[in-house]
Amino acid sequence: MNASEWQRFLADPHFLGEFYAASPPTLDECELFYVHVDEREDSVTLGFDTRCLPSHPDPEWHEKPYNRFEFHLLFSGVVDFQVGKWTDVEAREVNVRATPGT
């Protein structure tokens, strides 16, 4: 997934569009901190943390100050999940690809 695909993906109202309008954080502005591979199904959940705060936060978020935003993405129908290396440096490089025709 290239940078423009990531932006378009997150800007969708089904994902982060309601919080960020047309300007969600870039992949470089997000830090991968969580990976869950569901061995019983075909899903992978990725958790990200960003300091790029939502432009349209939920009203209840105004009650307490915050300086980070955390979100999770659930990918289903995963058929080829690979991890090359897993140190704090390599984990920052995330590459998500859709199989053509899916």
Give the tags.
102 residues, alpha+beta, three-stranded antiparallel sheet, 3 strands
Structural class: alpha+beta
**Main beta sheet, described?**
3 strands, antiparallel
What overall form do the CA principal axes indicate? globular
Please compute the radius of gyration using only Cα atoms.
15 Å
Flag low-confidence runs: none
Percent of residues in β-strands:
15-25%
Distance between the termini: 14 Å
Average pLDDT confidence is: 81
Number of helices: 2
What is the number of strand segments?
3
Write out the strand line-up for the largest beta sheet, numbering strands in chain order: 1-2-3
In helices, the fraction of residues equals 10-25%
Order of helices and strands: HHEEE
The quaternary organization reads as single chain
**Whole-number count of domains:** 1
Topology of helices and strands:
Blueprint: H1 3-11, H2 17-20, E1 30-38, E2 43-50, E3 69-75
